[in-house]
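Today's session is about reading a structure prediction critically. Students often jump straight to the picture, but the first step is always the sequence itself: look for stretches that repeat, for charged clusters, for runs of hydrophobic residues. Only then move on to the predicted structure, which in these notes is written as discrete structure tokens rather than atom positions. Here is the chain we will use throughout the hour.
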Amino acid sequence: MPRNRGAMPEATWGTRQALLTSLRRLSDDELVARLKGLAARERRATALLVAHLAELDTRDVYLRAGYSSLFTYCRDVLALSEHEAYNRIEAARTARRFPVVLDLLAAGEVNLTTVRLLGPHLTAENHVGVLESARGKRKAEVEQIVARLSPRGDVAASVRRLPEPRPALRVLTLEPPVQVASMAQAAGGPLATAAGPLAAATSALAGAVPVPLPHPRGSAEVTPLSPDRYRYQLTIGGSTLEKLRLAKDMLRHALPSGDDEAILDRALTALLTELARKKFGAEKKTGSSRKAASRSGCVGAPDSRHVPATVKRAVWVRDLGRCAFVGTEGRRCGERAFVEFHHVRPYAVGGEASVENVQLRCRRHNDYEARVYFVREAVGEEQPRAGTGGPARVSGTTDGSSRGRSGTSRHYREVGRRASTPSGCTLQWRHRLGWF
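Below is the predicted structure for this chain, in token form.
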């Protein structure tokens, strides 16, 4: 029996399946080229739509059609979401004042959100320079431009007690005695007929114990006010508030005003100092660490994948605490979360824990580069040389160092084969190969 696919015709379903199947045959370069072409056509279509809305906004077409506003018309007739309708209408009104916006939208140099944010602040005198400064910028960066164009004063520090949030409830089912249902069955008659459903209902009601779920905590809100000034709003608990007040009292001699910003800055400075000390602190000079220290702190012990603290500090500062992976088109990843120390030439094939051979990688790029490296090593392809980008021939059969610290060439070819599949990319393999 065919699967129910709703109102979609069988021919249409087959066409869509054939399209997805044909896309799987494309090479990476072909797929990317098609995506770029489709994105360019979508941008041109968006610019045309905005231009048409700019003209429609000057006519009474939507009023004659029975719609009270252009927004309602876009939502109900053009089937745009409320967010899509709002962005496009604001962009259309800005483009009617400054038609150069249409060219920038079609070229992908600005997007609808950028135009919406900048529109109220554009004038005949500044629109060229402002739009030029917003080319290729993300929303947070555009908000910085808006803060520069229309700076707002600092917000006053305030503490306000929030109402206790109403937690979501879940039902914890118990096994209660259903005495009412038993009484109904004993009485007979009409009540006995309903004994089954009544027992089920009684069990559900008696066993439904409301258990509060943890209240979700959102991230703090950051809003640019003026150049280098931000509003930072968050919710804190009573103990955190007491610590803040205690810090104010203890710093009265140095900060008589009790400025919250200065206290927060001091607290974060102290926290970062402590975290850096713990993260890359001094090591006990025992075993392999003694060997690392004996090599002037620039290279780890040759028989250990351990990265000395001196190397970690140098790499962290050099890479600015961000993923240093550079893509094929020259773009650096720059991710800050969950960064790891990555051996450019893996430890398993002789890579040392040196400043030159260790770089920061986010977890995804660390995993990706390791898989790519060992797949290439398994088939004897050329590998990029650390720090130069040039090729370096790596073979699993040349000598002991290229085969790894332990095991045979065939072992690492098997490792490369497993690493080439997503199921083989486990934390166990990553530790075993010394990927970080």
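Discussion point for the tutorial: Residues 236-279 form one domain.
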